[in-house]
Amino acid sequence: MDGLAVSPTDLRDALLSVFGYTDYKSDLQRQATEEVAKATQDVFISMPTGAGKSICYMLPGCVGKGTTVVISPLLALIQDQMEILKKVNVPAVSINSTLSDKERKEIEKKMQLPAGPAYKFLYLTPEQCATDRTRRLLGGLAKSRFLRAIVIDEAHCISEWGHDFRGDYLKLGKLRDFCPQVPFVALTATAAKVVSDDLLNRLKMTKAAVFKKPVFRENLFYEVVQKMEDMTEDDWINDLISYIVKIFQKSGEGQKSGIVYCRSRASCENVAEAISQADVSALPYHAGLKEREDTQKLWMEGKVQVICATVSFGMGIDNPHVRFVVHWNMPKAIEAYYQEAGRAGRDGKPSWARLYASADDRSQLTWLIRKDLDEREAKGKTVNRKGATDRLDTMIKYCLSTKCLHGFIAAHFGDAAPLCKKNCGVCFHGKVKLAANKPKVLHQFKPPGTFKHSYTAGGGVASGWWAGASTSSGAGGEFQRGAQDRVLLDHPGFTRASNLPICSDLPTQPPVKCAAKKKRNSTMPAAGTFKPVGGLAVPQKNLPLTGPGTSSTGPGTSSTGPGTSSTGPGTSLTGPGTSSTGRGTSSTLSLKRKGTTQAPATTTTTTMKQQKLPMVAINTLPATRFAPAALVCRTPSIDVLGQKKKSELHDGSKASRRNSDDSTSGSGEESSVKFTTDLCALTDLCSSKEPEDRPYRSRPQQLDWTRFFSSKASKPGGLVTPDEGDGVPLPLGKKPWIRDEREFWKGDDAEDEDRAGGGGTSGMIAEEFAKRKRATSDANSPRPPKVCRVPSGCELQNPTSTRIPKLSLASRMKCLDDLEKAYAVSDRGTARQKAVTMEDETFRKCQTSQKYTLTVSGMVKKLLQSGKKDEPIDVED
Ligand SMILES: Nc1ncnc2c1ncn2[C@@H]1O[C@H](COP(=O)(O)OP(=O)(O)OP(=O)(O)O)[C@@H](O)[C@H]1O
Questions:
Q1: What 8-state DSSP symbol labels residue 697?
Q2: Which of 291, 606, 654, 851 is deepest in the core (most CB within 10 A)?
Q3: In what residue span(s) does the Helicase ATP-binding domain sit (predicted)?
Q4: Ligand 1: does its nearest atom lie under 6 Å from the Cβ of 54?
């Protein structure tokens, strides 16, 4: 289009003068920007999260003539983008359903001024673009040659959502009829080939200039942590907190932020509360919280370090200081995971993405998706069960992958395997290779005379708790992570599959004291001592066959539950603690007591049955009874280990860290030394023991599996087949973006509980928890009382948090300190006293911990900003 083109020189000048960037972030960013600036043809830009795609259209749009229309999926995302433009004084506006008719008319008028539109950018949702009124407006702009380009941000949504619950996405191509010759620009970070082909077809962009960069995020460390079934939620919270603290310690000075994605609102609140108690400021964020915008602002400004959010806090969040993204639950699809994890490290510095996965995740997602599909089907809608099954299956495969996680993601999006340089949990800890067709012993444990259980793993094996997902990737060769994790699940104290070295030559090790965490309400006897037998950890006493955690009904943990059938080729898995043999390759884990003969290398279920031995899930054994000695001594650099503090070997968790150290030392990768050093520290952290008196609420982690896996769901080898789309179902019974776009997309949570309708999973879980709570309270083991730690010399006028139960004293002390610092700006002498008074007043006036925290941070901000720092501030402000 004549007169719309912008020269590269002008672009570069504006890059600095408008956005303050001295250079392009990458050459690809420059090339793409220059192509968009020509305004002559369609452009498709596919670059990783955080690569700087926005600049590619913002820069030409700012400098060149005319208006750029940007179509974006979420109102929150639109607001974020407009905020960026507002900061650099570029006029931008959005037409959406939150506007009154008068406001809308006003904007339309300003867009149609004879001299040209008053706004450089007009943001729209796909639903708005589908209205005749908007089409007419755009058509008019195009006719008068004031429409520079139509940008489709997060273009993968066309393919991922358009076919499902946002049909208007599929109508975007129709805009071509109203705006012929206006170039389209599609931006995405997550378009697999099939998705990009689909979206380009839909947008009639088949002749577009393509700028594509692989999805590889070299500064992101991906890892998966399995939540073991015989550990409590508190244990994992402790693990999470340690991880966060360590990351913040390692990240040096300056602003440091993090995100913890949770599946439910309740979980957001609980996790945020727990983190706050560890003196890391954290707040929940979900659609049910009115103050979520304030929360986001505080987080962006670094006044709150961690945000515990539902997935509504996803695409478009651009805080350069995010050092970690934790997924407290498994997401529904790898696309969503990549997007959300991609919020970390946008400044290019080393950052971490950790996913905590559990059997609960799989079963909850499966249940939820099935429910949604059934309901849609009942309404006569067509559903693509296979599509949704595949997505969830891929996510599960990611969790179980024993191959490079970067490589896994790259392969999913059709990229070549990147050079990971130990930047993922698998590569960092090293792959475990097994010779094909050569069974190898993993570990053998044999409890004396009572029973024998074993676990074998081989190529193509699926781990117990995931069984049902097709996790196999062929027989022989590498161990599947699932196999490792099964072992891991059986050895509390090891938080990662990749911490668990698996070799065949177990050297003898000194006795190792188990570092496993205590299971609450356990009726198991206390930990025994251990002696190695043939390099194996051995319990010294007979082990009971039953106890808490013993269950034969859990998915993947049972001989009766679903998911215990064979899934991989030549793989048979009959439940944890039993045997599973992969084709050609198998290994065995069994228990063995000192003095007994070692079990044969390969012990199969058949053998057990033949011997009439009871089959008991191995992870029902008390955690504290197993020393991970064998695991310690598996590391190839054991000599190095031996020279280190021997006493540390007595801590299984530290031992696991040592394994990491060793793998690092052997890396020889100059360029990744710094990064891997950081990771070592993190590994350390993950494995480190935490004080046991953390006052978290103990929550039962396990659900009644039979409820999830009845009838249809319990097909062997298959998940409950979910629907098409991105696995994020529509809130049932609603079409909010039609009736009131604001209601849905502004506060969009994409939360399972919201979308499942009724109580959703949360309702079901709450019901289950309540049931279990009742059962627990009936039992002899009452919950431990909440620990209330009063700091020594506590100055709080009311040193009890019972009035705001979720508020810890530590948080109050921190607020007090913040207030004091703020007061001290004007008057050092009385700052503390003023802070104490103000804190007390806030504490008495606020009803919730969140309100309290927000109020204090608001006051601190005001105090710091205000010239009259002595002026009393109303806590209700
Ligand atoms: N030329 C540049 N120099 C320095 N920083 C830049 C440059 N371009 C963009 N950035 C910064 O990079 C970060 C990511 O940019 P942007 O939000 O556009 O990424 P994106 O590719 O759209 O990512 P996502 O797909 O995850 O939303 C932002 O903080 C932005 O300010």
A1: P
A2: 654
A3: 34-209
A4: yes
